[in-house]
Amino acid sequence: MEAVLRRHALQAGLDIEFDSAGTESYHVGDPPDSRSQKVAALRGYSLAHLRARKVRVPDDFIHFDLILAADETHLDWLHDHCPKEHQNKLRLFLGDQALPDPYYGENDAFEDVLTAVEGAAAYWLKTLGAPKR
Description:
Structural class: mainly alpha
CATH topology: Rossmann fold
Number of helices: 5
């Protein structure tokens, strides 16, 4: 999500800070799944510089204006750990549905997820209406 949002914001001339983080720590420091990197590269996104990190509580909730979760499980975790005054910042990335987890699927599943992320990125950037550089 981060690389897609970042590139689309840059192309639109929007000045927005993006970061990504998980709710578990077992992948901290790891790069994205190699299948995800391969599919992303075919569409012009580089994920090579990304490394997994865990959400920093409460810092991330304070620092970021919007926190988007991939699915309901992650959204529930975020709600459980988010200070009350920042709960309004939490949303599902796809609005009313979960982003599918392609991990146990084939390359097609990764392509489908990337397509969904690209569509949602366009929506979020339009919704955010961040100031142009």
